[in-house]
Amino acid sequence: MKTDIMVSGSTGFVGRNLTPFLEKGGWKVIPLSRKQNTENTITYDRLDKTDFDQSNAFIHLAGKAHDLKNTSLDEEYYEVNTELTKTLFDLFLESNCKTFIYFSSVKAVADQVEGILTEEHPYQPETVYGKSKALAEQYLLSKELPKDKRLYILRPCMIHGPGNKGNLNLLYKVVLKGMPYPLAAFKNKRSFVSINTINTVIHQLLTQLPHTDTFNMADDDAISTNELIETIASAIGKKPKLMAVNPSLINAVAGLGSILKLPLNKERLQKLTESYQVSNKKIKAALHMTTPLDTKIGLETTIKSFKNT
Question: What's the whole-number mean pLDDT along residues 285-298?
Fold first, then answer.
């Protein structure tokens, strides 16, 4: 059996963690990139069916991430997240490669959630990022898949792990500097997924080979942003400072921030205060996962990595 696995986006956050994890498991990872980063790297302009023929699986992590500063052109999202995915999947279908794993996002189906998000939720993306991911998913699902091939579409929620950037790092800096968190009046519940969970899921998909399907990825428990602040404070030996500023005032400030391109804008406020709970029951059942995926323990590991760096 071939043990080669091609991975696009291997230099991104998930790729940097997944690649050594797979290599420890005995797979040979062949990175795919826009630039020749290593001797082993295949660039997109040199990629052809032969490269897929030599691999047992293809993991498509590459994509244009959601830009909270709104400085990216819409065309960039569709070019990278949609068209590149279509090209790679077409090559996969023509080849002898057996497994295609597409790293999508929960935002491909919903930017806001009432209740708990399951895989049955209809496509209702609102941002160009979500729409570009949804179009890619729909293209993959529209193609007839040979009986000897498998397609797994993975939809992670907010990812955390050592080296993580974004809102989690922003909250860490707020707590570290002893600044009060002014959004405590907002009550929410939000799902997270650890990079360890992602590594484990992909490893199990490659070894167990369940039926083709689409799966959400999340740890077991959703927590509020206030609980997240308390978890961060506990991990670095600080006392949490929660301040319940009037939500109307906060919304007005965020609206101004969107106009003046300040750190707190409407989109970032939504990410920090919205409820976004994601079910992981389907993936755990498909892979027979019984070990709890503890959110707070994983977050504490992530936060301590910020402190060390």
Answer: 90
* pTM of this structure: 0.90
So what's the pLDDT on residue 33? 82
**β-strand pairing of 57-60 with 99-103:** parallel
| 224-249: average pLDDT | 93
Main-chain phi, psi angles of 238, to 5 degrees? -115, 160
Domain architecture of the chain: domains with CATH? 4-156 (3.40.50.720), 161-192+219-276+290-309 (3.90.25)
Percent of the chain past pLDDT 90, that is, above it, reads 70
Residues 31, 14: contact at Cβ < 8 Å? no
Contact by Cβ (8 Å): 278, 204 = no
Q: Which of 226, 166, 155, 193 is nearest to 295 (CA)?
A: 193
Q: CA-CA distance, 303 to 245, in Å (whole number)?
A: 25
pLDDT of residue 201 exceeding 60: yes
Query: 110 has which bridge partners?
Result: 124
Q: Supply the pLDDT for residue 65.
A: 81
Phi and psi, residue 201, nearest 5°: -60, -45
Place of tokens 């101004």: 256
Residues 6+ apart with CB under 8 A from 135: 78, 81, 82
Query: Which among 33, 39, 35, 28 is positioned nearest to 10, based on CA atoms?
Result: 33
Q: What is the mean pLDDT of residues 83-108?
A: 96
d(CA 60, CA 8): 5
Torsion, Cα of 79, 85, 89, 91 (10° steps): 50
Closest CA to 193 of 226, 168, 227, 230: 168
Per-residue pLDDT at 117: 98
Q: Rounded mean pLDDT of 232-243?
A: 92
